[in-house]
Amino acid sequence: PFTTREPVPGMMDFEDVRLQLIELPPITADFCETYVTDFTRGADGVALVVDMGDDDGPFAVETVLEQLKTRRRLLVDKLPETDDDPTVYHIKTIVVANKMDAEGAKDRLEIFKEMMGNRFRILEVSAETGLGLDTLRAELYKLLGVMRIYSKLPGKPA
User: Fold this and answer.
1) How far is Cα 6 from Cα 138, in angstroms, rounded to an integer?
2) Alpha-carbon span 89 to 85, nearest angstrom
3) Gap between the Cα atoms of 52 and 108, Å rounded
4) Of the candidates 25, 45, 28, the residue with the CA atom closest to the CA atom of residue 94
5) Buried b (16+ CB within 10 A) or exposed e, 134-157
6) What pLDDT shows up at residue 2?
7) 32, 12 in Cβ contact below 8 A?
């Protein structure tokens, strides 16, 4: 926590598409940068990263969800069909269970899955070993609902 102190933008390549990712500072029970809500308002999706190498990692997610909820940002698996309250922003979210190579990570993941139920898709990754990173790229692309359209001259190959 707190190695990221300000937003850090980056680009992710997936097939022939580039997606912009922005890493934000962590949210804790005691601290949430005020500008995080501004970033979430313009976000097309969220990758909520959980540290499975830390015993407190799975429990920190509830804190993040509550902090954002007080700021009228709801992280959801799927967007609601109707918008009852236009001041509340629903943001499509994937949960990324990172550090799955750490000792005890599988046990923490099982606890976390029990806590979350079916609220979110949970992807298992290890940034250290590369486990699941290709799947993460594909799932982030899918989360955004990007539609690619290729034009070509009539009668010519694509």
Assistant:
1) 26
2) 9
3) 6
4) 45
5) eebeebbbebeeeeeeeeeeeeee
6) 67
7) no
Q: Is 99 exposed, middle or buried (0-12, 13-18, 19+ CB in 10 A)?
A: buried
Pairing outcome for strands 17-23 and 8-14: antiparallel
Q: What does the DSSP 8-state code read for residue 117?
A: T
Q: Output the tens digit of pLDDT for each of the chain's 158 residues.
A: 667 888 999 999 998 889 999 999 888 888 888 888 888 888 999 999 999 999 999 999 999 999 999 999 999 999 998 878 888 999 999 999 999 999 999 999 999 999 999 999 999 999 999 999 999 999 999 999 988 887 888 888 87
Amino acid, single-letter form, for residue 38: D
CB distance 75 to 122 below 8 Å: no
Given this model, what pLDDT does residue 26 score? 86
> Rounded to an integer, what is the distance from CA 77 to the centroid of its chain?
10
Q: List phi, psi (to 5°) of 73.
A: -120, 120
